[in-house]
Design goal:
Elements (H helix, E strand, L loop, with lengths): L1 H29 L9 E7 L7 E6 L4 E7 L5 E10 L3 E5 L3 E9 L2 E5 L7 E6 L10 E2 L2 E6 L9 E2 L4 E5 L4 E5 L6 E6 L6 E4 L8 E5 L6 E5 L4 E5 L10 E5 L2 E6 L4 E6 L8 E7 L7 E4 L2 E6 L2 E6 L5 E7 L3 E8 L4 E7 L5 E6 L4
């Protein structure tokens, strides 16, 4: 009887161990172990993720996932979001939740999208800790509320900041020191862009654009009298940038194009010297010291134009939609709306330029 009792005890102990082991395996399968193998900086060999023209990806140990992009003209963007990583999947929290299966072989990482799209092929490169230097983040120097409350480009006349107030149809002259309205200029056209000609002449021009016809009007600033109406370019001009007397950069929000325009005055309104396909919808522009500054979303692009259009610097005003830009001789001013509160503001920033 003693032998039978010992046998029964051993049998029950063995069964208990098997049950516990099985439970532990189930728990392990429900919570796959994390891996350090995929963390670091990766170069995109092929494929797209989150934003167009993806170039580098950072998979960070703080559970963030960053994509950096750059197109063939140097226009940069980035997107950072949260993620979780297991030994077979990355779950990315951007525009909803997306689960990517992955395979890792040496320094080659393949991300397999959860939808019908080609896999993303990545190659590991040295982590240079330069993620924060891809785009220069701007700080606000000064800001103030403005009454026009809409998306439009702005300009500076040497004393006042100018923008269009749609409710009463006037162009407002804003004192940049206290953001008070210093004066108004009547306008008969709904506008998206205003620009002062770069000229020392007493007859310098005020350019007004934004209509669906794709034309802009030139007024003599001193008298507010119509000087000429341009030939058509693309519809809905969102940015006008004076280069020098008689030459302008214009853009079309609808056509996603940039135009170099030559004006010959009232007798011959002008001609288009160059047309550039942008591939995105531009907003305001300004031209200073040989560079064209363009804005899109929360980004400002500093561009050269002498040998084709190329962005040499990219700046970002995080959590803002930037619609207009101008230079006061020392700093740049933006017409922008915060994602966190309603209403446009004039925001002074230092681009170091």
């Amino acid at each position: 009887m003693k032998t039978s009792t010992e046998f029964l005890k051993n049998l029950l102990l063995f069964a208990w161990v098997v049950v516990i082991s099985s439970c532990n395996k189930d728990e392990a399968s429900a919570e796959p172990a994390q891996t350090d193998g995929i963390y670091g900086k990766w170069e995109v060999v092929s494929g797209e993720i989150l934003i167009n023209d993806a170039k580098y990806i950072y998979i960070n140990t703080d559970n963030t996932f960053m994509v950096q992009s750059e197109d063939n003209r140097g226009f940069r963007d980035d997107h950072k979001t949260n993620m979780t990583v297991t030994d077979i999947q990355i779950t990315i929290s951007a525009y909803g939740t997306s689960i990517y299966n992955y395979t890792l072989e040496g320094n080659e990482l393949t991300l397999i999208p959860p939808y019908d799209s080609p896999p993303l092929l990545l190659r590991r490169i040295a982590n240079d800790n330069e993620a924060d230097n891809w785009i220069e983040r701007l700080s606000i120097v000064d800001q103030g509320n403005v009454p026009w409350g809409r998306d439009m480009d702005i300009t500076f006349d040497g004393e006042f900041l100018l923008g269009y107030h749609g409710e009463d149809g006037n162009i407002l002259q804003i004192n940049p020191n206290d953001f008070s309205i210093a004066g108004t200029i009547p306008s008969t056209t709904r506008l998206n862009a205003v620009e002062i000609e770069k000229s020392d002449s007493t007859y310098r021009q005020l350019f007004l654009g934004g209509s669906g016809s794709g034309t802009f009007d030139s007024f003599l600033y001193s008298s507010n009298s119509l000087y000429y109406t341009s030939i058509p370019v693309g519809a809905y001009i969102r940015g006008i940038a004076s280069i020098e007397p008689g030459q302008l950069w214009l853009n079309s929000h609808n056509e996603e194009k940039l135009y170099k325009y030559k004006s010959n005055g009232a007798l011959s309104p002008g001609e288009i010297l160059e047309t550039i396909d942008l591939g995105f919808q531009p907003n305001g522009m300004d031209y200073r010291n040989g560079y064209l500054y363009m804005v899109k979303d929360d980004k400002i692009f500093k561009c050269t134009t002498s040998s084709g259009l190329r962005a040499v610097e990219t700046y970002a005003l995080d959590y803002h939609e930037i619609d207009g830009i101008t230079f006061d001789g020392t700093n740049f001013w933006l017409n922008a709306e915060s994602y966190e509160e309603e209403g446009h503001k004039l925001i002074k920033v230092d681009l170091g330029a």
